[in-house]
Amino acid sequence: QGHCMYCGHCAPCSAGIDIASVNKFRNLADTQGEIPETVREHYRTLAHHASECIGCGLCEPRCPFGVGIVEAMRRAAEDPETVVVSVNLDRSEKLMKEIAAIDNLDESSQFHVGDATAESAIREVFEMADGLRTFIIDERGIIVKVDPSEKELAQALAS
Length: 159
Hints:
Blueprint: H1 19-32, H2 37-44, H3 69-77, E1 86-88, H4 93-102, E2 110-112, H5 116-125, E3 135-137, E4 143-146, H6 150-158
Parallel strand pairs: 1-2
Antiparallel strand pairs: 3-4
């Protein structure tokens, strides 16, 4: 009771998450004490990830094993290797530092791009017009989420 058997009775997920696969990958990682690269790669290929769980709980009564699926998705969304870095494209580095101080941000994670050529290249690569884009990037530099929801960003920051 309470352990996922990967049967899929919880489906369909309102957010489109393959709950059984997410649980399987998380359990494999838990048994090894770390997230093996092969598990990480298979997880990345899923169309939807645990961080997209909206917590509706519709899956839980369908589970014949009594798994707390919403909590399992929350745990699976945690990644202890998440690091928050801010790249600022404003013209003023002074303004960036003032905003970082007001927001209580770690100064070592704040980077200013003041060179117009570099700024232009960054805007082109990341498809940015004027304004903000937010990216969650894994430890290898791979973008795992573009413009995450407030909940997804909070989860990334909490881990």
